[in-house]
Specification:
Blueprint: H1 10-31, H2 35-54, H3 65-77, H4 87-106, H5 133-143, H6 153-169, H7 173-178, E1 184-185, E2 190-194, E3 200-204, H8 207-227, H9 245-258, H10 271-284, H11 289-296, H12 301-304, H13 306-322
Antiparallel strand pairs: 1-2, 2-3
Helix pairs in contact: 1-2, 2-4, 3-4, 5-6, 5-9, 6-8, 6-10, 10-13
Length: about 325
């Protein structure tokens, strides 16, 4: 019988699904991956199970390297039911499949790892988009003027505080909307952020951000929270409930449009744009990459080093436009 195939049977199919479920449970409990990552991995592995079923494979132990490579090639090419996946999505799917086979090997479900020699495609390195400091300042100043005075004043305080917080701490949007009032220590100008995989980190809050958050907590938030059911979240919506990620996106898009910054296309301003700008401006100011790594909550400094490419590009631009013999 060929190494990549085996006659199908219901019991074997159930065993495959149990192996996938066990792997996902492992990622949840032992690795603490985020809900978004788990959702993506579950979707990727569902497609992998489809490939195995079409090849009449019911046991991970008989999967060969060729079948893994065929699966990834199908993802890149697409089919009648799926659009072709981009390089980054295929790389993520490859990571999910390779992780499943490594898990099966550790659990004694297989005698080898057919995905070990399969190299996922390397996504093209894209430099993070960082706004110039003057654009960030214009965006922040605009945020507080989006709402009219009177009834809109609390929301104006919230919008300014949220964007100041994102840029002043480098927080992810999920970390900002997930922050509780008790996580903020105004006396020490720090906030406890809860990041990916359940990891937490204590980061400083800049003076402008701290002033904006204080103004929101004192003059804006109490009235809105009183109208709701009560929530520990720092940032709340107009009904007094916790602000959602989608709500925060809307706040930023509204402020960006008012500030004359792009809100559509490849250069559109997003919450992550403020995080990129935070990291880039720190490095431009002389911060050590290891310190920036800790502030951003990156598990590996390799992830942070992409920001150093931004500053090098900026140096090249300045050199090219300023040095008499640069051209």
């Amino acid at each position: 019988m060929p190494p990549d195939t085996q006659t199908t049977n219901p019991t074997g199919a159930a065993a495959l699904h149990r192996a996938v479920d066990g792997y996902l449970d492992h990622l949840t409990v032992e690795r603490g991956l985020s809900a978004n990552t788990l959702t993506s991995y579950r979707r990727d592995l569902r497609r992998y199970l489809t490939t195995l079923a079409e090849a009449e494979v019911v046991d991970l132990a008989v999967v060969g390297t060729g079948l893994v490579e065929t699966h990834l090639a199908r993802l890149r090419a697409g089919d009648d039911d799926h659009q072709p996946l981009g390089t980054a999505s295929v790389a993520r799917a490859a990571s999910a499949v390779r992780g499943l086979h490594r898990f099966a090997l550790r659990e004694g479900l297989t005698g080898g790892d057919p995905s070990r020699d399969v190299r996922p495609p390397t996504p093209p390195r894209r430099l993070p988009r960082a706004l110039p400091v003057q654009d960030v300042v214009r965006l922040l100043e605009t945020a507080g003027s989006v709402h009219a005075a009177g009834e809109g004043a609390p929301l104006a305080l919230r919008d300014r505080a949220l964007l100041e917080f994102l840029y002043g701490t480098g927080a992810r949007i999920s970390e900002a909307v997930g922050a509780a009032v008790d996580d903020l220590c105004a006396e020490e100008a720090t906030v406890l952020l809860r990041g990916k995989g359940g990891r937490t980190r204590l980061v400083p809050v800049g003076g402008y951000a701290l002033d904006a958050v204080r103004a929101w907590l004192v003059r804006g938030r109490p009235g809105l929270v009183a109208a709701g059911r009560g929530t520990p979240a720092v940032f709340v919506n107009a009904r007094g409930g916790p602000l959602t990620r989608q709500g925060a996106w809307t706040i930023l898009r509204r402020a960006a449009a008012r500030a004359g910054l792009p809100v559509d296309g490849a250069d559109a301003v997003s919450p992550h744009t403020l995080r990129h700008s935070y990291a880039t401006h720190l490095l431009d100011g002389g911060a050590d990459v290891r310190v920036v790594q800790e502030l951003l909550g990156h598990a590996s400094v390799t992830t942070t080093q992409v920001y150093t490419l931004v500053t090098v590009e900026r140096l090249r631009e300045v050199y090219a436009t300023s040095h008499p013999r640069a051209l």
